[in-house]
Every structure is written in structure tokens, then in C-alpha cells.
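Morning run. Coffee first, then this:
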Amino acid sequence: MNGFKSYIMPLFVCALYFLLYIPIFVLIVFSFNNNAITYSWHGFTMQWYSDLLSSVEVWDALKNSLFVALSSVFLSLAIGSVLIFFGNRERVKNLLILFYGSLAIPEIVLAVGLLSLFSFFSIPLGASTLIAGHTLLGLGYVVPILYARFIELDVSLIEASYDLGATQRQTFFAIVLPLLAPAIIAAGLLVFIISLDDFIISFFCAGASMQTLPLYIFAVIRSGASPMVNALSTILLMASSFFVLLFSFLQIKKVRVYK
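And here it is:
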């Protein structure tokens, strides 16, 4: 009896993970289904992936998603790095609650707030508003990650740079940025993943002229499930998984280096 109890928790965890990942497994399997009726298996095919490659709408949505994600990464990292180094350390520490707050607030509340702000100032929705929304969301990850690494830096290195005649700007680019590089890369990957997969802020802030991949999937699936949507979702899943694994690898490597 005692031996059986020792298996209860592992079996429960396995069952939980099975319930979490079985929909993803079904999604991947039916992306190869040779039937327009998604949940009726008629054989294996690569037709839906081929259709994706020849779809102009998908490529346009991909370009928009990459443009927004890369812009958000650049702005988030630039603003976060400058704020942490050039700002007063105590003030930045006190401001961290604001960035953590953007993560604690439900994303739909943040999206509605951004939409209200843009409407109040009569800012037309499009690429600029979407980038602003994703940048705000990204700062909630970038600032805490970079700040945690920045306070671990050896202050004597920065002081030695000043003693040798370097300016604050020269010290930032020659000393601080190289030391923050692992954290910057990790934070950038995280923001890229979040921006690429985001739907809620995109739905509220993109406008009619800007369509990202999540918005494209939503528009297509409203008319019914499609194997092509499954194929596109599978590709997005593989891409996101790759970046998540890369982010985890960098975090593990960073911890080993710091130790």
C-alpha cells in the first residue's frame, strides 16, 4: 500500500501534463490531415503546409508580426538599458513595482487602457500603436531582468572606467553593455516570443490596417476550423518552442557563469 502511495503524485502529474498537451498533439496530428473537415482523418498530406507557403495573406501577416516584434524588442531593450544605467538606482528600484504591475494587471485591462489612451489623443490605430503596446508589455519583462543583473555587476569596474577618464556614455557602451549582454539577449528573446504570440493587445491596438499572425488565425478560424490554421499554429508552436528553449539555455548558462 505504501508503495502504491509513492506513485500517486507522479501519476497525477503525468495525467495533468497529458491533459495540458493532448490538445497540442491533436493540433499537430490534424495539420497533416488530408481532409478539409478537420476532425475526420482521411490520410497523411503536406498540402496545408504547401498552401501556407503560397499564401500571400500569411506572408503579409508574418512580415507584420516580425516587424512589430523586432521593433518592440529594440525599443524595450533600449529604454530599459538606458533607464537602468543612467537613472538613479534607488529611484529605479522604487519604479520596479510599476513594471511588475504591468505583468500583474490582466492583459485585457491593459489593452483597453491603451485603446482608451489612443482614442483620447486621437491617435490612429496601426503599426505604431501596436508597437507601443507591445513595447509597454515588454518593458515589464526587460527592466526587472536587466536590473537584477545590473545590481550584481562589480561597481569597481565602473568606477575604474571613470578614473581612467571615460565618460558615462563611454562606460555604458564599453563596460556595462558587454556585461549585460547575456541578460539583454535573454530578455530580448522573451519579449520577441511574447510579441509574436500576443493576441489581446494586437486585437485592440492594431486597427483594421495591421494584421499579425494571431489576428490572421482568429479571422480565419471564425468561419470554422481549418487544417491550414492547424498547420500555421504548428509552425508558430515550433518557432516559439525554439525561442523558449534558447531563452532557457541562456538563463542556465548565465547562472553558471555568475556562480
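The chain is about 80% helix and 0% strand. Good start to the day.
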